[in-house]
Amino acid sequence: MKKASTTATEKALKLRERVKKSKPKFVRQESWRYKRLKENWRRPRGLDNKMRRKIKGWPPTVNTGYRGPKASRGLHPSGYKEVLVYNIKDLKEIDPETQAIKIAHTVGKRKRTKILVEANKRKIIILNLKEVKEIAKREEEKIEEKEKIEEEREKPKQEKTEEEQETDGGS
Predict the structure, then answer these.
(1) Residue 89 belongs to what H/E stretch?
(2) CB atoms within 10 A of CB 83
(3) For the chain, counts of helices (H) and of strands (E)
(4) Strand, helix or coil for residue 42
(5) Which long-range contacts (CB under 8 A, 24 or more apart) does 162-168 make?
(6) How is 118-137 classified by DSSP, letter by letter?
(7) Which residues partner with 142 through β-bridges?
(8) Is 110 within 8 Å of 87 (Cβ atoms)?
(9) 79-134 tens-digit pLDDT
């Protein structure tokens, strides 16, 4: 039974992708006309509003016909259901076969590493692992920069000691 449901969700995900390509970009009415209006969607409510009345030549409005299939709603493109995780306790409630985690952005470095270790033990997929890798790279770069600065500080000290030895040996 699980195979049938997984194939159904895979089909639904493919259908959602296809439907999304044909879906128009919904814009706020007259946003192209006035700089002060952003393109963020707002429902047209005016009595004589052309978009609300769906007059030919005006941009389309949001309606249920543009929705994706019900089976794929709320799913990540990978097919897993996204679950936001704040601590290790949250990992205990996750089913690794159907759910994948996203570590919340408010979680600190120490707790984040603990969550990563625990998720790897339980074989749970982490969706925002790329961000974690980027953070790790930045940390490594910072450490390298600090090491370079320390080396530069130590070089003049070493040169001074060599000069002192030369002056002591010369006299």
Answers:
(1) helix 88-91
(2) 17
(3) 4, 2
(4) coil
(5) none
(6) HHHHHT--BTTHHHHHHHHH
(7) none
(8) no
(9) 999 999 999 999 999 999 999 999 999 999 889 988 988 998 999 999 988 766 77
